[in-house]
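Class, look over these structure tokens:
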Amino acid sequence: MNIIAIDTSTDACSVALLRDDGQVFAEFEIAPREHTRLLPMMMDAVLGAAKTPKSSLTHCAFCNGPGAFTGIRIAAATAQGLAIGLGIPLVPVSTLATLAQVSLDQHALPDTLVALDARMREVYWAIYQRDSEGLARLEGSEKLDKLETLAFETVPASGAGHGWKAILENSSTWSVNRDDIVIDTELLPDAKSLIKLAQQAVIEGRVVKPEDIQINYLRNQVAVKPRRL
């Protein structure tokens, strides 16, 4: 398998390539509003570093949301165009799952609550557990809640994402000791962690045709299936 993975769903822009020998090549940069310019250059950079021609790619993975609407569509459109051109399947992966994988990779802890600021005093959030392979597995479902109504039944060992800034500033949603949880509000999803989840998705057959691409905006629990991005 030669899997390329792209993510532009937050302020970070990143690309990673899993070569068929297991080696990973990656580019990552925090660059708000620069995704359209950076993404093609990053894709060329990882392909060049891996000495892998674009025609050798077997799958294209991308973060399909939730996150910044424009950013998600940039990654989805790029992935769709590449997949159509090469005749390869797509591997859509949740942005929250990818962020959870980043968090779990950074901390040797069993679970994490990831949160992204959805604006309008709302946050996208979910709890992911580390499975036996070290991969992020969703517990329950991904949610979009208002800060005023946000409540956690259990407190995970760690937390990640800029949504935590809003959570911590809203005292009505926070009723446990901050010392009980390791929180990193600066963590962002990246394609290097996305690759891990994408590889497992390919093994399990969780791939889609380019024409069946879906974007999960999560707002109002709507998954949008565009005719063509």
Remarks:
- DSSP finds five helices and twelve strands in the chain.
- Residues 221-229 have pLDDT under 50 and may be disordered.
- The first strand starts at residue 3 and ends at 7.
- The radius of gyration is 17 Å.
